[in-house]
Automatic annotation (TrEMBL):
First-level EC class: transferase
Record HAMAP family: PlsX
Organism: Alicyclobacillus macrosporangiidus
Gene Ontology biological process terms, A to Z: fatty acid biosynthetic process; phospholipid biosynthetic process
Reactions that this protein is recorded to catalyse: a fatty acyl-[ACP] + phosphate = an acyl phosphate + holo-[ACP]
EC code(s) of this entry: 2.3.1.274
Identification of the protein by name: Phosphate acyltransferase
Mitochondrion as UniProt keyword: no
PANTHER family the record matches: FATTY ACID/PHOSPHOLIPID SYNTHESIS PROTEIN PLSX, PHOSPHATE ACYLTRANSFERASE
Tagged with keyword ATP-binding: no
Recorded name of the encoding gene: plsX
A Pfam family it matches: FA_synthesis
Localization per Swiss-Prot or TrEMBL: Cytoplasm
Entry GO CC: cytoplasm
Binding partners and assembly: Homodimer. Probably interacts with PlsY.
């Protein structure tokens, strides 16, 4: 097994990805890792002997966060992100991981790696933290803004398979993110896909409201990328604001500081439960290879989690499982020029 890493993507690059890879290499000596990026910068942040299964593919070009994704992928074919994607496409790597531009990863997945047979629109599917500690997979979180009922059904099939085989959930509960729990709620797409999900053979539990997501009501929440991205950013913002407010309250005076000292172990456990580093990265479901998007501010620990997820993806042969699941459970999507 060989995993390609875009070492130049992310807020803490190249130090965090290199440190994460070195830690993962000691954990899994049977896995090979190819670090794609500026070799001089990589060596500078980890001036230690590297394991034999860690190799470097040097490239000078980097896709910056403010670049238009599709244009950057086309204009920078030798960038670290596109080079990693090309390794997956050419069979020289089984999966890739990047903490760089989400849009660029999506574009590279579509333009370089390519789609699975029958897939028209892929989905980006992060696992959101829940109060129960199990997490909920959100499909889609921003790859397909205007999904139709067929796209949503495919998202549900792929996310359910991923939850089962990579996350270890025996019979994932699938919910349709909606404005109410009744079957007749929502827009025309939600009403149409409700019946298709109910007849799909998945463990479909019906509509789920956004307020129920963090309670662990479902294991997979299906929605289009516009809704999913709004939900994702809202949860991130609320989490940051809440813990910031708690810190402010518990440091306001001597009495509050004493109370904070008593509560600190419990607060640390609560914070860790909602730490993205525990959940790895977001798989890009529907492309013909393993593409994992790590959080942009991933530290070495978060990178290690994302790499574990990539390894598990390959070990479970998820590309083949999703292809088979789509072939047997969902009719192929029509191409744009066939409509």
């Amino acid at each position: 097994m060989r995993i390609a890493i875009d070492v130049m993507g992310g807020d803490l690059a190249p130090a965090a990805p290199v440190q994460g890879v070195l830690a993962m290499a000691s954990e899994r000596p049977d896995v090979s890792f190819v670090l794609v990026g500026d070799e001089v910068k990589m060596r500078a942040v980890a001036d230690v002997p590297w394991p034999r299964q860690v190799t470097v593919l040097h490239t000078d070009s980097v896709i910056e966060m403010d670049e238009e994704p599709a244009r950057a992928v086309r204009r920078k074919p030798d960038s670290s992100l596109v080079t990693a994607a090309r390794l997956v496409r050419d069979g020289e790597a089984d999966a890739m991981v990047s903490a760089g531009s989400t849009g660029a990863l999506v574009a590279a997945g579509l333009l370089v790696v390519g789609r699975l047979r029958g897939i028209h629109r892929p989905a980006l599917a992060p696992v959101l933290p829940t109060f129960s500690g199990n997490g909920v997979m959100l499909a889609d979180a921003g790859a397909t803004m205007d999904a139709d009922s067929h796209n949503l059904l495919q998202f549900a099939v792929m996310a359910s398979l991923y939850s089962q085989h990579v996350l270890g959930i025996a019979n994932p509960r699938v919910g349709l993110l909606n404005v109410g729990t009744e079957p007749g709620k929502g827009n025309a797409v939600c009403k149409e896909v409700y019946g298709r999900l109910a007849a799909s053979g998945l463990n479909f539990t019906g509509n789920v409201e956004a307020r129920e997501l963090l309670s662990g009501a479902v294991d997979v929440a299906v929605c289009d990328g516009f809704v999913g991205n709004v939900v994702l950013k809202l949860i991130e913002g609320v989490g940051l604001g809440l813990f910031g407010a708690l810190r402010e309250v518990l440091t306001a005076g001597m009495a509050q500081k004493l109370a904070g000292a008593v509560l600190k172990p419990s607060l640390v456990r609560l914070r860790n439960r909602f730490d993205y580093a525990e959940y790895g990265g977001a798989p890009f479901l529907g492309v013909a290879g393993g593409c994992i998007k790590a959080h942009g501010s991933s530290d070495a620990r978060a990178w290690r989690s994302a790499l574990r997820q990539a390894v598990r993806f390959v070990e479970q042969d998820m590309v083949q499982k999703m292809a088979q699941g789509l072939a047997h459970g969902v009719e192929p999507a029509r191409e744009e020029n066939d409509k």
